[in-house]
Amino acid sequence: MIVTEFELRANWHKTKDQVIKLPHGSVITPSARDFIRSKGIDVQIEGNVRQKPFSEKLNALKKDQGVQEVKLEHMTHLRSGVLVTKTHPVIAYRGQLDLFQCELVEVQGFFAQEGEEKLILKLEEILAFARQLMASEVKEEPFQWATLIGLKPEELREQSHNPLKYFGVEHAPLSYTHGKVVSKLHHLRAKSREVELYANRAFINEVGVCSRTDLIQALNRLSSALYILACEVQGKVQMGKRVPIGTSNRHLHLSKDDLFVLFGENYALTIQKELSQPGQFAAQEMVTMVGPKGCLERVRVLGPLRKNTQVEISVTDCHKLGIKPVIRDSGQPDGTSSLQIVGPSGNVELESGVMVARRHIHLHTDEADEWSLKDGDRVRVQVQSERPMVFEDVLIRVSEHYRKEMHLDLDEANAAFIDAKSQGLLMEV
Fold it and tell me: Could you tell me the domains of the chain?
């Protein structure tokens, strides 16, 4: 018969017997023997002629005719001289702490590829912290520490609870747009919280008494430290996700055929000034637009020429002309309004292609890759001005020929009080 601590504890709590009888040849595990000692229980082996006093019996237990000590395959040492089952809560906690350290080292390897040397050093400090946690528990010594990643326990708690104040980011769901580094740090944080959960199972009993408050508090602050690192990186990323804002007044793009009708055969546009986007320019040429209820004079032509003529105006302009405002991405004329374009040499009846251009951001391919964005994505943008506001559903347009800039029409720019210093801050997809 094998007598384990678990069986003894379960039966003893029912009867509180101070004497237990075991059959001859019983095997008592070391942890069960410790339990017997702690409760002052007298063990009697059936078939023995003389029953020794408890203290004497414990000292001679290995030599007793019917008792022997063995280490079974399903058991392991909790510490020197103490055997427990491998499902023991403290053993499970140690396994999770080991796994956390493995994953931390893997993240350090990833950061080395990314050139994140400062973060590698921060994680090295956290790795040493985790190793000390393990040693403290195994040796049954108090865990003492002053700072982690340069912060005291109360500072870790304060900053992790107020990321907007310290790092300029809000508590928000993780997004791929935050970048791989932030994702890796959040993964480590989630793992550290799992370690903390296992520690609570190991060191808090059924009535809520904690035997290792030092370890529980340290693990909680470890989670805070990793969250702080993630917020710091995310804050820097968001600080970098700023775009200048350009106000787009009413204008039109002409096809070659419509240019010739309006300005004459073989006419060429005259560049007045280069625009922010490479290869695009404002021309000296201007036209008049005529709608059912009114007209807009001196509307500037932008170059170069396009395959199809497209007019981009504001909602206010649409009301003045008496046409229905239709919001479209550039180059998507289906379902848009019509009007007449009047030039010095002729008129063009434009059947479609008059739109309120959807607010958008031009990004170079390198910038889009850096920010984990692609052509066609939609983002939220916080406009920083004297009248700050958040613009939803902002289209991302990506090309190797683009320069970083957000475009708003005149109505949107006026609503946000945009000036030359205003910037947009990308918030999320």
Answer: 2-83 (no CATH), 89-240 (1.20.1200), 252-357 (no CATH), 360-428 (no CATH)
Question: Phi-psi category of 150—alpha, beta or left, where left has phi over 0 and alpha has psi -120 to 50?
Answer: left
pTM of the complete model: 0.49
Which whole-number Å values give the CA distances from 248 to 85, 314, 360, 365, 401, in the listed order? 72, 9, 11, 23, 19
Q: List, as one string, the DSSP characters of 347-413.
A: EEEEEEEEEEEPPEEEE-HHHHHHTT--TT-EEEEEEESSS-EEEEEEEEEE-TT--SEEEEEHHHH
Q: What is the pLDDT of residues 44-80, one digit of tens each?
A: 777 654 444 443 444 455 455 454 445 577 788 887 7
Rounded Cα distance between 4 and 31, Å, is: 7
φ and ψ of 354, to 5 deg: -95, 115
What H or E segment, with its residue span, contains residue 244? strand 242-248
Q: Please write the tens of the pLDDT for every residue from 329-382.
A: 888 888 999 999 999 999 999 999 999 999 999 999 998 988 889 999 999 998
Q: Are strands 310-312 and 347-357 parallel, antiparallel or unpaired?
A: parallel
232 vs 37, which has greater pLDDT?
232
CA–CA dist 313, 248 (Å, integer): 9
Measure the CA–CA gap between 92 and 75, rounded to whole angstroms.
13
User: Tens of pLDDT along 134-146?
Assistant: 999 999 999 999 9
Average pLDDT over every residue of 165-174: 83
d(CA 287, CA 313): 13
Q: 204 pairs with which residues across the strands?
A: 210
